[in-house]
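Sharing a chain and its predicted structure for anyone who wants a worked example. Both blocks are below, sequence first, tokens second.
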Amino acid sequence: MLEVVVLAAGSGTRMRSRVPKVFHTLLDAPILDHVVSAARKATPTRIHVIIQPTMQEFAEQILARADVNWIHQESQEGTGHAVLQAMPHVAEGATLVIVTGDTPLLSAKTIQAAGSACSEGVAVVTAELENPHGYGRIERDSNGQVIAIVEDKDASQAQKAIREVNSGIIGVSRSLLEELLAGLSRNNAQGELYLTEIIKLAFEAGIPVKTVKVCDPDEIRGINDRVEFAEIEKILRLRRVRELLRSGLTLRDPERFDLRGSLTTGLDCVIDVNVLIEGEVRLGDGVYIGPGSVLRDTEIGNDARVFEYSILESTHVGQRCSIGPFARIRPGTSLGDEVRIGNFVEVKASQLGTGAKASHLAYIGDATIGENTNVGAGAVTCNFDGRSKHQTVIGDDVFIGTNSTLIAPLNVHSGAFIAAGTTVTRDVKNPSLVVSRTRQREIQNWVPPTSRRKKP
């Protein structure tokens, strides 16, 4: 019976933030969420997360998890003290794997390995690092047996030369852990209860201490400041990018692709440079995304093309659509097949039927537009009266002339023709021509103000 304890009560002052370190968003989720997700994949019976009481607000708002048992560490007295807070919540007979909440690259495989290796004693996950600064060192005797974990602040120069480091991941049975925790002391540089001291206590009691060495040292990398945050975020992003490349996606430059959510692609998709993906994005077959575009929670159909610097958010795009450049598609919009949204067109909470077009310089908000309707340059749906939003419904095969203004609520019958410069205030009930313009006047012998003589 496996249970996982996540140590996440550290303030993370080196992040210099009002947000606790483990709740900073790394790509698409808080740092802690990455760790909890890895723990969940190891299929434990329970996951316990130890936090400060002041972090509960973040836990509820940012990382609400029904399967996580939040435990408060009222005072920060070390990792050993933190684990003591969890002990009353752990089932009798359970095997515990203790991990740190700031290691987002941790895998479920490593958690499972630590749980399996501690059947006869204590298991410690270790790694060989070129630069072990900041990590506790694994000290062994002449026979290669682990005798202690020496924290970096307490290590001698000889101990600091050791490259095998503690990952912070320990596997141990509940009963043995309870026994070892009782022997912890505060005889260290910090005056705290170090969980790592149980390794020395186990060795002195003749209890076997096994090590599980990770193949990829990045797994145990913790985040302490913004530099390490950026480095680990890049590692995680490139891991996901490689998976996408292997699945058949073409990226013009993988180093200039910003993936902060989840991306599912069909066959023969191409994404150009400096594209940002957030939330859940799905691309059909043969989709092209141009440079500098942003996609958030959007689904795009087969053979659609999104040209440079377009922004699509919470949008459904049909097959063979053409969007941009410099288009903005806002939440609640659905585009049918073969829709054309051109440069400097904004569409919000609207539905456009198959073949509809708004090729340039238009605003379409809270509208339903039928098939093969053309919206001219400068056309605007006036959807807001200062208090409420109103709908504009336009039928099939309608022509909306340049610089037309449609004042909602409004219905325009299929086949209608709105002449350029027209302001439409009443429903158009028949497929007719609608014109509302003032008569053009031409004033002869007019003198511009700059040419007029000043009065004496």
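Comments welcome. DSSP finds eight helices and 39 strands in the chain.
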